Amino acid sequence: MSLETAPKLNWWNRIANPGQFVIWTKPLLWPLVILTTALFAAGLYYAFFNSPEDYQMGDTVRIMYVHVPNAWLSQFVYGVMTISALGTLVWRHPMADVSMKAAAPLGALFTALALFTGSLWGRPTWGTFWEWDGRMTSTLVLLFIYLGLIALWRAFDDQLRAARVIAVFTLVGAINIPIIKFSVDWWSTLHQPASVFRPDGPRMPGSILIPLFVMFFAFTFLFLTLHLKAMHTEVKRRRVMGLQRRMAQGGAA
Amino acid sequence: MIGLGPHGVFIIWAYLGVAIGVAGLIGWTLYDARTTAKKLAALEARRNA
């Protein structure tokens, strides 16, 4: 079979090869960095210089521009990990567990920042840094799930075996995501109910929605950039582990 | 620069905390990438020697 007559691989199969994945996605990194930087510059300009104070909360509404994107990412990153876990268990895609492992520390940090900014917003708004209500407690549980998964990855030497075990734990942990989302509807809570993504439209004026959406995309693209870079590093780390094993076997023979 | 009102300290700490967290995450990602790339290059050089 020559190169011309060989069956053409679709993109799904091509990115299944870790080396090909790195070659194909490396050119995306710099455009992502530039886009993320531009979005943060615009978002911070809007947040501090071109958005009004809220009629009830005053200037503390500006904390929302960093709190909501981090809270969104805390759940979105777990969504990415859940799809990756399915990719590992169902499709056995070689890049799925790489994605799952690379996303966990990022998700943990975004969750910690959501809790941190939330408590700083809560003190002037509700009069308390912390309350053991449904939204805050379930988000804290999410942080512990992330930390547990990171610890599990470090506990295994065989990363392929680890991937299957951790994929199962990740899927079990996914139960917490709808609990976080609907906690404000199911239980009496200090946290306000959804005010952006609602069937009857957002309950905020455009002057506050624009900076919120710009920061939302800035943080989302920050995650995509760091996730891609971390995936490239993970591919290289596995190559390092493979070479070390082969050299050790060669030395022992 | 806008005035941040009576609760300015909470706003400043929120943004400062996020900036430190994000900077740390970027720094750690780049450091991890660099050390892993160096390790791989050294191992490949040893294998090819």
Question: What attributes characterize this protein structure?
Answer:
heterodimer; A: 253 residues; 9 helices; globular; B: 49 residues; mainly alpha; rod-shaped
Q: Give the low-confidence spans of chain B.
A: none
Characterize the largest beta sheet of chain B: strand count, sense, and whether it forms a barrel: none
User: Residue ranges of chain A: pLDDT <50 for 5 or more in a row?
Assistant: none
Give the overall shape of chain A. Answer: globular
Strand content of chain A: under 5%
How many β-strand runs of chain B? 0
Residue share in helices of chain B? over 70%
The overall number of domains of chain A is: 1
- Beta strands of chain A, count: 0
The secondary structure category of chain B is mainly alpha
Characterise the protein shown here.
The complex is a heterodimer of chains A (about 250) and B (about 50). Chain A is globular, with a radius of gyration of 21 Å. Chain A is mainly alpha-helical. In chain A, helix 6 packs antiparallel against helix 7 (about 160-175). Chain A is built from 9 helices and no strands. Chain A has one domain. The relative contact order of chain A is 0.15. With about 50 residues, chain B is an all-alpha fold. Chain B has a domain at about 20-50. Chain B is built from 1 helix and no strands. The longest helix of chain B has about 40 residues, at about 10-50. The model of chain B has no long low-confidence stretch (mean pLDDT about 90). The chains are: A mainly alpha (about 250), B mainly alpha (about 50). The interface of A and B includes residues 113, 226 and 229 of A.
Write a short abstract of this structure.
Helices cover 74% and strands 0% of the residues of chain A. By secondary structure, chain A is mainly alpha-helical. In chain B, 84% of the residues lie in helices and 0% in strands.
